[in-house]
Amino acid sequence: MTVKEYNNAVDIYSDGIYRFAIKHLRNEMLADDVVQETFAKVWQKHEDIQGSKVKSYLFTTAYTSILDVIKKEKRSGDMENVSQQQAGSSDIPNFDIQQHLEQALNTLPEVQKSAVLLRDYEGYSYDEIADILELNASQVKVYIFRARKSLKAYLKRIDILV
After folding, report:
1. pTM for the full predicted model
2. Start and end of every RNA polymerase sigma factor 70 region 4 type domain (predicted)?
3. Beta-carbon contacts of residue 136 (< 8 Å; ≥ 6 apart)
4. Total structural domains in the chain?
5. What span, in angstroms and rounded, lies between the C-alpha atoms of 11 and 82?
6. What tens digit of pLDDT does each residue of 30-51 get?
7. What CATH number is given to the structural domain containing 121?
């Protein structure tokens, strides 16, 4: 990949990677770190990356960085404390569908959550998601189906409670 292709990739994909990271991490500073780390890793290997494959490489790198951050935060307990504080911050029921959807997404396994976010929020094809998550397209379809089924069941339970 040339320097020009790298700069174009930064312009085109940095917002998408940030949105992808923020949906997983729910922390702007950590999402910024993931974006920066992703592009730093791509720059280190820019000579070995084909310009046409940069999108897949970027999101795969971002995905592994996100998983590393989640593992690190779980070890330190920071993300668990934040989630518990947000969940227990008020006894008044909140009927915000976006908040409920975020909670539902957080119940999914990471691979299902990533597949749904890439498909439904970012609009990637099954083949592109397969490249990013290092799966085959059939596995991606199964993960998305299971995730949507879980989300639907979760939201139905919320509907009953409300």
Report:
1. 0.61
2. 101-151
3. 130
4. 2
5. 32
6. 999 999 999 999 889 888 888 7
7. 1.10.10.10
